[in-house]
Design goal:
single chain; about 350 residues; alpha/beta; eight-stranded parallel β-sheet; three-stranded antiparallel β-sheet; 12 helices; 13 strands
Length: about 350
């Protein structure tokens, strides 16, 4: 029987954690195997706050690339309460920054230096609106009194909606949307708002995380939600709506930091990201929409050219290795140790 295959323009990852140093060098090949570009998250320790920080981090990424790889890291600025609009404008004008990232303080991994009140960065947002510089938001309130499953919906109500009214021309990406409420909010926007969708939010729910014992390798922020939320995400991602595009939020943590008394948030999907999305789109009967979601919608929102090279996927069963080696340990791959149905042909 002839194998089914699918060829599409080379995709980009519009939300990626590479970490730094030895961990970065270990996980980078998993991404540049498939993706031409990626938006690189700035939540290092210390965070990437200046143009000089971004250029230095970019240089470390480029130095760690496999010799035959062609990959473009797109760097972002970590917003803090004291972020300088002039520094951000200089970084954007020079190409050191492609976007700025808003982490509510305490919302996720390495977010303690994030923004404590959106009013503190209104001057920055006003400048970004004028420049056309995208704002990437981790869309959760971090108030400890808020139920973890309500954090995204309340962020829309308390932070995002008022911010968009104040800065109506500001380009915003709601990253890793996880709820039906977020999908509806993005779909209702007339312009300047988009969202990334992860493979793990498309594939698992809180029952998978908690239903038969805690599975720490499925723990992420925002936490995976109900089956109805997952279905809303699938419908949005596979619909052909250009406001939704691929962002893995792939986030490596050593096994010891995931399987701990207080486990770190993050799911590592980079090792088979495109294959995982292909499974979701196939199950939804929407393989024809995968190229738009993975390769076209993101560049168009960011005002960048689509990639001219192509990648091919083949419909065949293969064993997905359980882990990727790290210095002094391993990172568990999402769906690692399982049989996957699609494989990138390299």
């Amino acid at each position: 029987m002839t194998e089914q295959s699918l060829t599409l323009r080379q995709p980009d990852d519009w939300h990626l954690h590479l970490r730094d140093d030895g961990v970065m060098a270990a996980v980078l090949p998993d991404t540049c195997r498939v993706f031409a570009r990626a938006i690189i998250m700035p939540n290092l320790t210390p965070p990437v706050r200046t143009a000089a920080d971004a250029l230095a981090y970019r240089a470390r990424i480029m130095a760690a690339l496999p010799q035959t790889a062609t990959f473009e890291p797109l760097m972002t600025c970590y917003l803090t309460d004291t972020a300088d609009p002039d520094e951000i404008e200089r970084g954007y004008a020079s190409g050191a920054f492609v976007a700025a990232k808003l982490y509510p303080a305490g919302a996720t991994t390495n977010s303690d230096a994030g923004v404590t009140d959106i009013a503190h960065v209104h001057g920055v947002l006003e400048r970004m609106e004028r420049l056309g510089m995208p704002l990437l938001v981790h869309g959760e309130v971090a108030d400890p009194d808020v139920d973890i499953f309500d954090r995204e919906a309340l962020f829309i109500e308390r932070v995002l909606a008022p911010t968009r009214r104040r800065f109506p021309a500001l380009k915003i990406v709601m990253e890793h949307v996880s709820t039906a409420e977020a999908v509806a909010y993005v779909k209702a926007a007339e312009s300047h708002l988009a969202a990334t969708v992860t493979a793990h939010h498309l594939m698992v729910t809180r029952n998978d995380l908690l239903g038969s014992g805690i599975r720490p390798h499925l723990f992420c922020m925002p936490v995976v939600k109900r089956s109805s939320d997952r279905q809303a995400l699938i419908a949005a991602a596979t619909s052909g709506d250009s406001r939704f595009f691929l962002g893995t939020d792939s986030a490596p943590h050593p096994l010891r930091d995931k399987e701990a008394a207080i486990g770190r948030a993050g799911v590592y999907t980079a090792a088979a990201a495109l294959e995982l999305y292909a499974e979701v789109f196939e199950e939804a009967g929407a393989l024809s929409a995968l190229e738009g979601f993975a390769s076209v919608n993101g560049p168009r929102f960011y005002g960048l050219p689509v990639n001219q090279k192509t990648v091919s996927l083949v419909r065949r069963d293969w064993h997905h290795p359980e882990t990727t080696p790290l210095p002094g340990g391993v990172v568990h791959r999402f769906r690692g140790g399982e049989t996957l149905r699609w494989q990138v042909s390299v």
